[in-house]
Structures are given as C-alpha cells and as structure tokens.
Amino acid sequence: MKKSGSPGNAKRKHPGNTCESENNKKKSKSAAACLGVIRLDYDYPPAPGDIDCADSFDCDVYYKVVPGLTFEMCQKGEMTPEVEERFKESVKWLEEEKKVKGITGDCGFMMNFQSMARNVSKLPIFMSSLCQLPAVTCGYAEHEQMIIMTANGESLKPMRGLIRDECGVDTEDKRYNIVGCEDVPHFGEAVAKGEKVNTKKATPGIVKLAREALKKYPKSRAFLLECTELPPYSDAIRFHTGLPVYDSITACHFFISGHKDNPRFGLDNWQDEWDGKQDEYEYGDNLTEEEKAALVNKVD
Question: Of the listed 107, 167, 181, 252, which one is catalytic?
C-alpha cells in the first residue's frame, strides 16, 4: 500500500507543472492494479506464499476455476473441447469482468496453455514462473548457471520443448540444472497427493536440497522455483545460499508492477491505492450454477 504523507515517499513538485497537475485532478483515477489467477478443478489447503493464497500478494487477486481442468489434463497439455471453451471464457471473464492487469495460473503445467490464453487476451499472460527465465538468464554470463527447482524433476522434462518455444530458453542447455523436490520429507509426497504441506517441517529439507544443489553446481548464480507450491521456501533459500530466488510470486509482482504507480516520482494521484484487504474467496466462488455442476471436484 502506498504511504501518503511521509516525507521520504513524497514526490518532488516541479515548477511550471501547476496547470498539468490541476488538469489531472479533474480526471478520474485509475483503479489499483489487480491480478487474475486461473485455477485447476482441484481444491487443496494453500500455505502462505502459495499462489492460491491471496495474502501472498500486495494487490487484489481474483480467482477463476476452470471446470474439468484437472491436474492430469494440465500435465498432458491436452484439453477436451468443452474444457478449452471454459478456459478461454475464464480468461475473458478475468479481463472483462474483474479488470485484471495480468493473468497467471495455479499450476506450472499451465505453461502448456500459455499460447491459448494469449490468443484470447491482450493482457500479459504468465502461466509459469519460467516466464522469468529469459530475463534472469540475460543477467548472467554464458558460463554461469541457474538451478531450477521443481516438485518433480521427471515431470518437467517433457515440457522442455514447450519452454524453448514459449520462453526462447533451452533448459537442456548446461546452464540450467533441474532439481526435483519429490523426495524432500513433508513436501514431495504431500504435494503429489494434494495434501496440506507442513511448511515448517518441510523447510529444512528444501534448504538442504538447495544447498546440496549449489555445492553440486557451484557456477550457479540464481534459483528459479517452478512449482507454485515452492514460494513459501524462497526466503529460506535466499538466506541460506545468499543467492536471488525467483518464483511464481516474483513473476506476478514483476508483470503487475508495470501497472502500478511509482510513489517516489512522476505523476501524482493518478491511481487509487490498494486498501490492503483481499476479497474472501473459497474454491468454486465466481462460478455459475451450471459451471459448478461441471466441476470434477465438487464444491462442498
């Protein structure tokens, strides 16, 4: 939330801009930037830091479940015609009804539908944290490497061609070291079963794996967490390795920041401030009765 009235945050007023400022006051403000999230037809208890936990973000977040879009369908990258139509309508609903400024998904395998979502929206679409990979890669020399942590290393391999086509990055390149978290105690099995993850108990194992990966790949200069359930551990990895960590939350913040007011300089009072409160949301909200009837995982 923007802090008003603080000397450290006040923008410098420039002489000669009085008329412009007065004219701008007469115009209505832009709404605070907000994020849209496409959700799987799947309900689970998200931890703080998870993309399905609205409190993970510093802006309003709106969710839309796509009835019939299961994890298995997402992993295969193939939709039925009915689900494809619902997916496209959900993207349009977030853009037209909720006026979001960017759209992501709550499963990294939704990268399979990145192109489909782009074709029905003019908004930035970033279905996976891997969308950050080109920028992160650009920041380092050719001999330097990155560690990509994912819930299951084997599951990510079939997506390498798609990642190359969508992001312009070949994860088979020696610069990228994929590390799966499937064997991490309190994490791998719980994620695979769709159970609640005890993040406190899982943290030591995630950190251990990250440190071991860094020891194995000493030329690595950054971590990228592919799984949307890994951001709760980003800070711990940052602290224990000293390296930057990019995840699905940093991806969202990057794209949404392009629509946010900069309180330190530039035009004043052109955008509403976010009130810091998320709308209450439960799985299945924002669906019609017909859409709820089409859910595989029914609303209780």
Answer: 107
